[in-house]
User: Fold Histidine kinase from Methylobacterium currus.
Amino acid sequence: MQTTTPAPVVLVAEPQALPGLWLEDVLADAGCTVSGPYGTCTEALASLDAAPPAFAVVSTDLNRGSGFPLACALRRRGIPFALIAGPAPIPRAFVDVPRLDRLFGAAEMIGTVAAGHAGPGERRGRWTCPMADRLSAGGALALDQCPTACRA
Assistant:
């Protein structure tokens, strides 16, 4: 009897329609299940509980704000991710995260996802965000106060 490994779920947060659809096609062709694409941080954050991804691809510039609050949430949940670089500078807290420059190919995307995603049922461990209380109280995200890799 042959068992089938479930397709990894990859969350895509990309505000532009055509690049978002391209990412969805590339990932689906590689055997991934795609959650998204989501154009806003709020939409992507809301999806995390419904379909926890094995990996995420996050644009630094989303509609109505940056993708960094989503990146923080992913890191706190132990979900690996890559950032798609835009004009926004990437904070030092994310220097260890794979970065895709805006012009990247399908092979680079698939290689990044394959190298970074946890296996079926695995998580990389949750971290406690030192700003969790501030954020849950409605305070602003202060990336300059994030410790490197949110692991302190």
About this structure: Strands lie at 9-13, 33-38, 55-59, 61-62, 65-66, 81-84, 99-100. The chain has one domain: 9-150. The helical segments are 17-29, 41-50, 68-77, 106-116, 132-136.
